Amino acid sequence: MYIILVYDIYTETKQGRSRLPKIMKKCREYLHHTQKSVFEGEISEAKLLALKKDVENIINKKEDYVVIYIIENINNIYRENIGIDFDPTDNIL
Amino acid sequence: MKDYYIFKSGRISRKDNSIVMETEDTKIPIPVNDIDNLYLFGEIDLNTRVINFFAKNGILVHFFNYYGWWTGSFYPRENLVSGEIIVRQVEHYLDIKKRLEIAKEFVYSAIDGFIKNIKKYPNIDDSNIATMNNFSALALEQDTIASLMGIEGNARELYYALFPQIIKQEIEFTKRVKHPPDNMLNAIISFVNSLIYTAVIKEIYRTQLNPTISYLHEPSYRRFSLALDVAEIFKPIYGDRLIFDLLNNRELTDKHFDKELNYCYLKENGRKIVVKSFDEKMNNTIMHKKLKRKVSYSRIIRLELYKIIKHLLKEEPYRAFKIWW
């Protein structure tokens, strides 16, 4: 499946600011970094479960939240760019 | 899980428990959980830290030199090992009867691929198909590996001789030449074959089979010879069809080849085109008749290896893959 993951971390406190890079690094293990707090990519169900668990361990449930948009069928997504033509999921570098 | 093809030059390193590709001007993070295989075409630095990390994650790395020739693969320590399979593999190699049985299937399937390919092009004379059919019948009668290889060679010679009728571009092509290829078509055939070869290595890694014990090719035959065997089946139907499409749709023309070196190798932009359509092709899915579900082209290679395992374990006689679409 294809997912888009967006997070919002409460950075007013010192702990929040230290969570921010942690969650970014964790997401980078699984997904492609599209924008500052946006990740996307193809992922298997098992790996998504692992990712969710890792994310849960990092965030503070009272202050942060993470949204995962799940697209079951990859054919149902069409990516369109405005501006720079940039596809972070490209596998030919 | 995807294959990543890297043409840029720079350094690949382990960072934050994932992979990052550093080039002169950018840093591109690559999610380690998304990497299936890495194909390195550029000039890339690696250190042991990252290689150990690849091994831990079961990532195969294929290296290509400046001219696009496959130089080798990093094949991590096998995590799927089975003593029994190795014993059976060796048993089927040592017994010439058993060995021929498997080797014939490879040749038969390869020739079947030639026939299916030339049948797609109506301008080819039917007599050629009849000759090909003759070759496949002859292959089944051979009782030595050398003569079987001979039949395969003859069939391949005839098959390549038909290429100028299939390819609509003006291409000088009389016969297959390797080391180095002497023209455009030979160059692209060599390149695509090496991609198929690595695709088979990757699938062998995911099974218990030992890649060095083979049946058609001699096991001492450089490289992972089992991959050479299995690649024979897939070269005509995956590789050659890709080549015909790329050349006939004029996606590849002589400007993608290096003229100064007698067109003997693809330039980087040409290689990118081939790799891109190869990757698309391997992820293509078709309905599998027996499994009644969709399988990708690369999965078909794996299924083929499973069939070999079943044959070795004497569960089901091996019938090599024949294209049905």
TrEMBL record, chain A:
EC number: 3.1.-.-
Top-level division of the source organism's lineage: Bacteria
Gene3D superfamilies, sorted: 3.30.70.240
Cofactors demanded by this protein: Mg(2+)
Keyword check for Magnesium: yes
Residues noted as binding Mg(2+) in the record, renumbered to the chain: 8
Root EC class: hydrolase
GO molecular function list: endonuclease activity
One Pfam family matching this protein: CRISPR_Cas2
The entry's keywords: Antiviral defense, Endonuclease, Hydrolase, Magnesium, Metal-binding, Nuclease
Function, in words: CRISPR (clustered regularly interspaced short palindromic repeat), is an adaptive immune system that provides protection against mobile genetic elements (viruses, transposable elements and conjugative plasmids). CRISPR clusters contain sequences complementary to antecedent mobile elements and target invading nucleic acids. CRISPR clusters are transcribed and processed into CRISPR RNA (crRNA). Functions as a ssRNA-specific endoribonuclease. Involved in the integration of spacer DNA into the CRISPR cassette.
HAMAP family: Cas2
Entry similarity comment: Belongs to the CRISPR-associated endoribonuclease Cas2 protein family.
Assembly and binders: Homodimer, forms a heterotetramer with a Cas1 homodimer.
Protein name, as recorded: CRISPR-associated endoribonuclease Cas2
Organism: Rarispira pelagica
Gene this protein is translated from: cas2
Automatic annotation (TrEMBL), chain B:
Organism of derivation: Rarispira pelagica
The keyword Repeat is annotated on this UniProt entry: no
Subunit structure: Homodimer, forms a heterotetramer with a Cas2 homodimer.
EC assignment: 3.1.-.-
The protein, known as: CRISPR-associated endonuclease Cas1
Uppermost EC category: hydrolase
Function per UniProt: CRISPR (clustered regularly interspaced short palindromic repeat), is an adaptive immune system that provides protection against mobile genetic elements (viruses, transposable elements and conjugative plasmids). CRISPR clusters contain spacers, sequences complementary to antecedent mobile elements, and target invading nucleic acids. CRISPR clusters are transcribed and processed into CRISPR RNA (crRNA). Acts as a dsDNA endonuclease. Involved in the integration of spacer DNA into the CRISPR cassette.
Coiled coil (UniProt feature): none
Amino-acid positions noted as binding Mn(2+) in the UniProt annotation, renumbered to this chain: 152, 217, 232
Family according to the record: Belongs to the CRISPR-associated endonuclease Cas1 family.
MF terms (GO), sorted A to Z: endonuclease activity
Required co-factors: Mg(2+); Mn(2+)
